[in-house]
Amino acid sequence: QVQLVESGGGQVQPGRSLRLSCAASGTALDYYAITWFRQAPGKEREGVSCMHGNDDTTYYKDSVKGRFTMSRNDAKNTVYLEMNSLKPEDTAVYYCAIGDVYGIGSTWDVDALYDYWGQGTQVTVSS
């Protein structure tokens, strides 16, 4: 049984940092695209960052480029999203999801392509 568990969310002031974790169990991540999505109140879910488990190709939403960094620790079967210089518009519930890397490819921000989802972790950026 595949499970994804996010952690690391919280409330921070603008300009501060948070690191989100997504711990996977029941499968290795080598043949998956691992993606962070977020959903703010009243808005559609959007892709934030994706890493291909087979070759570490990484994608970022334009608005987070240079501020967010995705990484992985294979020994812990965990992926991370380091979020720096946070802005109020980054406020959302953040989810990690995995799907077949060969089926997703560069269309990483299409949420319907993902098979497994975590429960989400709230990130609030506010002064």
What's the topology here?
Blueprint: E1 3-7, E2 10-12, E3 18-25, E4 32-39, E5 46-52, E6 58-60, E7 68-73, E8 78-83, E9 92-100, H1 101-104, E10 116-117, E11 121-125
Parallel strand pairs: 2-11
Antiparallel strand pairs: 1-3, 3-8, 4-5, 4-9, 5-6, 7-8, 9-10, 9-11
**How many strand units?**
11
Strand coverage percent: over 45%
Low-confidence residue ranges: none
Mean pLDDT: 96
Q: Helix-strand pattern, N to C?
A: EEEEEEEEEHEE
Structural class: mainly beta
Could you estimate the helical fraction of the residues in percent?
Answer: under 10%
Features of the shown structure:
single chain; mainly beta; 7-stranded mixed β-sheet; 4-stranded antiparallel β-sheet; 1 helix; 11 strands; 3% helix; 49% strand
Describe this structure in a few short sentences.
The chain has 127 residues and is mostly beta strands.
Give a description of the structure.
The protein has one helix at 101-104; strands spanning 3-7, 10-12, 18-25, 32-39, 46-52, 58-60, 68-73, 78-83, 92-100, 116-117, 121-125. By secondary structure, it is mainly beta. The strands form 2 sheets. Strands 2, 4, 5, 6, 9, 10 and 11 form a 7-stranded mixed β-sheet that branches. A hairpin with a 6-residue loop joins β4 and β5 (46-52).
